[in-house]
Every structure is written in C-alpha cells, then in structure tokens.
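In the laboratory, one determines a bound structure by crystallizing the protein with its ligand and collecting diffraction data. In a computational setting the workflow is compressed into a single prediction: the sequence and the ligand go in, and a structural description comes out. We illustrate the idea with norvaline.
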Amino acid sequence: MVNKASFLKEIDFSKAELMELIDLSIQFKGLKEKRISHKYLEGLNIALIFEKASTRTRSAFTVAGQDLGMNVTYLGSGEIQLGKKESVEDTAKVLGSMFDGIEYRGFKQEDVETLSKYSGVPVWNGLTDTWHPTQMIADFMTLKEHFGTLEGLSIAYIGDGRNNMANSLLVTSAILGVNVTIISPKTLQPEQEIIDLAHAHNTGAILTITDDVNAVAGVDMIYTDVWVSMGEEVDFKERIDLLLPYQINSDLLAKTGNDQVIVMHCLPAFHDLNTEIGRDIYEQYGLSELEITDEVFQKYSTTIFQEAENRMHSIKAIMYRSLKRL
Ligand code: CP
Ligand code: NVA
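The predicted complex, in structure-token form:
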C-alpha cells in the first residue's frame, strides 16, 4: 500500500498531488521573501539521516525544518548504529518513537521504504540510487517559475541515463505530462523497468529514449548531472569516453535551435578546476570540464542556483504536507 504521508518516490503521487506540492512550494517561497513567519509545525522533531554526502539536501531540510518551527537533528552515517550494528527495521522503530518525521539519504530504495514501513512516521527520500524525488519538486517548480506553466513544455536530459536523476526526470515528466527525451549512449540508457513505470504513469507526455544528441532540437530545457554518481564503482575513464559526446556545450545548445532554451543541473557540477576531483581528472585525462562547460554553466547560473535555492522551499512544502494537522 502506498504511504502517502511519506515522500519516497514520484510514482506514489498523481499529477494533481505533485502540482499541489509545486504550487505550495511557490507559496512558501513568497512567505520567506516577505519575511512572514510560518512556524506551522512548532515543537515537532525531525531526524536527518545521511549515508552519502550532501550540501543542498541537508541544508534545505535543516533550514526548512527550522523555518517551520521544528527541531532538527542530523544523524550522520558514521555516528549511528544503522547498518553496522542495527538493522533498518530496528532503527526505524526507535527513531519513529522519538521523532515526528525522518529524512533519509542512502543507497538502496528498499531501505527508505523499510524505514517508512516500520517507523510509523512520515519518511522523506533525500536521494537513493534509484530516485531523487525532492529534487523533482524543486526542478519543476523552477520550470513553472520560468515559463509560467508546465503545459506544453519539452525537456531533455543528456548524460548518464541510468542514474537517479534520469530515472526521476523521466518518470516525473510522464506523471506531469511534460514531454521528455533521455539522451544517452545505449549502454547508459534507463533500465526497462523504469521506462515501463514512466509509460504506466504517463498522463499524455511524449517519452523518448535515444542516443542521438540531435534530439535536443526544439526543447525548452536541457538538464544534465554528474557522469559518475555517489557510490558507483566504475572506471572514470570509461565514463568519460562514453559521455564526452553528451557534454552540454555551445555546440549542443546550437542544436536546440531555440535561443530561449534554459539549462538546469541538480548540482554539484564539474565545470571547472575548483574541486579536488576536477583537478584529479584534469591531471589524469587533461579535461577541465565534464558534463557541462564552464561557459554554459556561467551563462545559465541564475537558473541553476535558483533551482538549488528552490530545494529549500520545496522540501518545506513536502514536510508541511506530511505533518500538518487538519
Ligand atoms: N542536488 C543535490 O541533491 O545536492 P546535494 O548532494 O548537495 O544534496
Ligand atoms: N546522480 C547524482 C545526484 C547528486 C545530487 C548522485 O547520485 O551522486
């Protein structure tokens, strides 16, 4: 049975429910901008579990929780018993008896589902290997802010088509009726199970999976993500060789034939040499930018950082929907 109090994956929700969350996020952003207090969940306690690193998701849950009047406790993976000495099920029962809601970022989707099943409180998926649903509300919120509507939009995701971001964008676009094209080399295209889910939940979008970069023609937005995701053990060189033709650069933008196109990225991004990994890759392979060139990143940085800020407003809406008392 779908647990609607939790927010575990996009397919648990209808188009109307996701649109309601997007609109609520925009309302919360307005309250914050006008500095109108909204401590609607005063006195509640939430726990944030992170088994992988995070800047945006952790900050967004922390600030959103505090803005809503809640007490927020961070539980880093190295500091709690989870996984090493205690099962997810037992951890869920303990945390559920003390906290009113739990955020979880980890590896297996099954773990966040187990946490929700046994904790008895709302659980929010802060990213697993399979889905990144809170990112979706921020992304489609950003699109709605930019274009005024989601109706009739066409988007393309280019790069690693087998990761959480590609999965979530494909399925969420289908639910919302936004045309989506996933552009990846054949070996990195979404798994059939994910494609089937997108078709099963489609409300009228055109869904395209291709290895042809020319498929960006006419799209309103191009999205990309890192070429190697957290927790993946793959040969970086192999990924670079496969994905370099799928980099977002000025040639790719020209292929859209749309001078109003925007570019989005969930971040973090490898677009310059100001990171340790970026410098390592440069030393080993001579590449100073990976999934997006610095030129393109800077050109669209207003939208990309608006998208990052929107993580906070949208996570606030997601937690409020779960915890509000009717
Ligand atoms: N986009 C995103 O989830 O960023 P973090 O990994 O910094 O949370
Ligand atoms: N696909 C990336 C997303 C980061 C927000 C990862 O899982 O590392």
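The longest strand covers residues 45-50. Keep in mind that any predicted model is a hypothesis to be tested, not a measurement.
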